[in-house]
């Protein structure tokens, strides 16, 4: 579908891509991975046609539609949320306008027997059929479903987009892209502005309803759930694996290990051969054997081990000065803007050494709570910062606050004081800004590099309370892992606002959930919280159905709590559809299990154990089986709920 051939990109004589070739197929779901600055965003821009390579070409069919979501964009503020989302269906409005125009013409025409009149009738019929195929009857429902999936409420639909933050407006742009259903979706860090619930919705949408997808994301749980192919960019080359990210990491390690073993064996063989040649080169009795060995040496195809980018971030927070036992205590804390209450009645106690997460939908008050602690805004109730608490604060927009005209070195030099100024070069080197990189202007840095630079400022003086607001946005996976370990090792207190489940997993022991104007405390890790929330949501749904059924004067189905004939028919249709889907999935699961069994039998043989392709195929099959099992579970739960509801309402 898209063919990338001989792609080369150079910046200042340094190659970013070096003669890269690969193909994007229909229904591919590709994770583009690599270190910050490796060229992931540049690759998406080139495929989107927004940037030209130094050499090479990108070929695709003329009628191919591409949707591109950049990390940053300029957004229009002249429409409501609904009207802006409706721009995704401009082709429907254009077709409707043409139909209206033809209908208006028919009203005034009287030459009923003419060929021209018959041609107009035919064109109107064709246009009406096309409009129907475009989904003109249900586009409004699609818009509502997509906007609500991305976290908007119905009350937001008629609000001007200018009232929303940049993150929320990015969601509107994402909604428009998803609604357009392009042949290829190019998404650059789509989860940066989403909360956990919206990310899970987007995962499901991309996995089940999108066409080809190529995305850059440093959210491991997200790309594992969505993608089935991983392309790594490293040192100007690509490494292409037809598996998800977690499996790719394993296969990449296995491949490098196999290469290294094969390389070492070959080197020993070469050394032995060269030693034989040197030893018997001048002995006439061995001349034939020597010549044979020389020819043998010339024919050896030299094994090369893939060059690895081993530059590594060295991140360690300074020892935390001892603070009081309770760095943060709030009693009845609240914050309102006019009539709008963000949250109220918050009683929170954070102990020294605790690592806690603040989660919830955007706009529910997480960053507002942090600003209360930082004293940046006023509030109601009481908030006490403990004895000897020294706060290190990483704001969500920290990277955007950098002066883009300064160099990396000058950025740190301007905030460093005392003896630390003599160690700036060493510090920059530890953060992979060594050598010439320290003289780069901030404006040419990638999003991840700017985040790393902002992180350095946080380390310039010892603190004992770290407040990190979305610290992982734009960080590559290895850097995220290093940051996570550094926070784990930090002996102070940590408050982290994040939507990255994998990053929070094993890091925090308490979760504060923001939503509906209240803050709820949940003991345990992030997945404990998500599991409890899923169970509670199911109970809430059941409770709402029960309340709706028994509420006086109201019913979700009618005054006498009985379904009409048409509604019963629709219920039965839905149940039949689910039963068919379950049966199809069961058949698919059986086929996949048999194929996996066959592969595992092949892998148990010496020949199969050394065949990398079999491992890749096995990984893909396991991924497909997991997806089929998840779908089967989802359909089965939905079927049970439908049957239960049907019995209660008939």
TrEMBL record:
Keywords: ATP-binding, Coiled coil, Nucleotide-binding. Residues 2-260, 328-541 form the ABC transporter domain. Transmembrane segments: none annotated. Pfam families: ABC_tran, ABC_tran_Xtn. It comes from the Bacteria. Residues 249-276, 561-609 form a coiled coil. GO terms for molecular function: ATP binding. This is ABC-F family ATP-binding cassette domain-containing protein. It comes from Coprobacter tertius.
């Amino acid at each position: 579908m898209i063919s990338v051939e001989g792609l080369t990109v150079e910046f200042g004589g340094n190659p970013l891509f070096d003669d890269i070739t690969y193909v994007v197929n229909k229904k591919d779901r590709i994770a583009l991975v690599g270190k910050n600055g490796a060229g992931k965003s540049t690759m998406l821009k080139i495929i989107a046609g927004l940037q030209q390579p130094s050499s090479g070409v990108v070929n695709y069919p003329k009628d191919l539609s591409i949707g591109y979501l950049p990390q940053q964009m300029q957004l229009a503020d002249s429409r409501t949320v609904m009207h802006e989302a409706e721009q995704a269906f401009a082709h429907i409005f254009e077709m409707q306008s043409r139909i209206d125009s033809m209908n208006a013409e028919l009203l005034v025409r009287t030459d009923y027997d003419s060929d021209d009149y018959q041609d107009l009738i035919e064109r109107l019929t064709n246009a009406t059929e096309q409009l129907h195929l475009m989904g003109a009857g249900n586009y409004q429902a699609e818009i509502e479903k997509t906007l609500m999936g991305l976290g908007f409420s119905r009350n937001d639909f008629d609000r001007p987009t200018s009232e929303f933050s940049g993150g929320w407006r990015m969601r509107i742009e994402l909604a428009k892209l998803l609604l357009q259903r392009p042949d290829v979706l190019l998404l650059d860090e789509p989860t940066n502005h989403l909360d956990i619930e919206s990310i899970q919705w987007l995962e499901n949408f991309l996995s089940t309803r999108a066409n080809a997808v190529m995305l850059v994301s440093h959210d491991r749980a997200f790309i594992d759930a969505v993608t089935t192919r991983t392309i790594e960019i490293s040192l100007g080359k690509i490494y292409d694996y037809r598996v998800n990210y977690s499996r790719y990491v394993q296969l990449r390690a296995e491949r490098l290990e196999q290469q290294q073993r094969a390389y070492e064996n070959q080197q020993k063989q070469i050394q032995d051969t060269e030693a034989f040649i040197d030893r018997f080169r001048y002995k006439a009795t061995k001349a034939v054997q020597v010549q044979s060995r020389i020819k043998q040496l010339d024919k050896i195809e030299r094994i090369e081990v893939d060059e690895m980018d081993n530059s590594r971030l060295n991140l360690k927070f300074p020892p935390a000065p001892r603070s009081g036992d309770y760095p943060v205590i709030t009693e009845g804390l609240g914050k309102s803007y006019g009539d709008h209450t963000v949250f109220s009645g918050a009683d929170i106690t954070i102990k020294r050494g605790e690592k806690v997460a603040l989660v919830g939908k955007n706009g529910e008050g997480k960053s507002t709570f942090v600003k209360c602690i930082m004293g940046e805004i006023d509030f109601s109730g009481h908030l006490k910062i403990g004895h000897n608490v020294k706060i290190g604060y990483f704001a969500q927009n920290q990277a955007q606050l950098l002066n883009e005209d300064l160099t990396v070195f000058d950025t740190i030099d301007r905030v460093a004081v005392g003896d630390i100024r003599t160690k700036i070069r060493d510090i920059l080197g530890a953060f992979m800004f060594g050598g010439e990189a320290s003289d780069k202007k901030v404006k040419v840095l990638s999003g991840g590099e700017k985040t790393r630079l902002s992180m350095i400022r946080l380390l310039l003086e010892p603190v004992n309370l770290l407040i990190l607001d979305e610290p992982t946005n734009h960080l590559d996976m290895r850097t995220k892992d290093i940051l996570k370990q550094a926070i784990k090792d930090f002996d102070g207190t940590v408050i982290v606002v994040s939507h990255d489940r994998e990053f929070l997993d094993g890091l925090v022991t308490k979760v504060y959930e923001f939503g509906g104007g209240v803050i709820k405390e949940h003991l345990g890790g992030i997945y404990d919280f998500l599991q409890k929330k899923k169970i509670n949501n199911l109970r809430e749904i059941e409770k709402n159905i029960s309340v709706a059924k028994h509420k006086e004067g109201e019913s979700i189905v009618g005054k006498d709590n009985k379904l009409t004939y048409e509604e019963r028919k629709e219920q039965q249709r839905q149940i039949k559809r689910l039963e068919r889907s379950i049966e199809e999935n069961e058949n698919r699961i059986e086929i996949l299990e048999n194929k996996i069994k066959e592969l595992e039998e092949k892998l148990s043989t010496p020949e199969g154990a050394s065949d990398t392709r079999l491992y890749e195929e096995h990984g893909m099959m396991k991924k497909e089986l997991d997806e089929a099992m998840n779908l089967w579970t989802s359909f089965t739960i939905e079927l049970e709920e439908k049957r239960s509801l049907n019995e209660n309402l008939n």
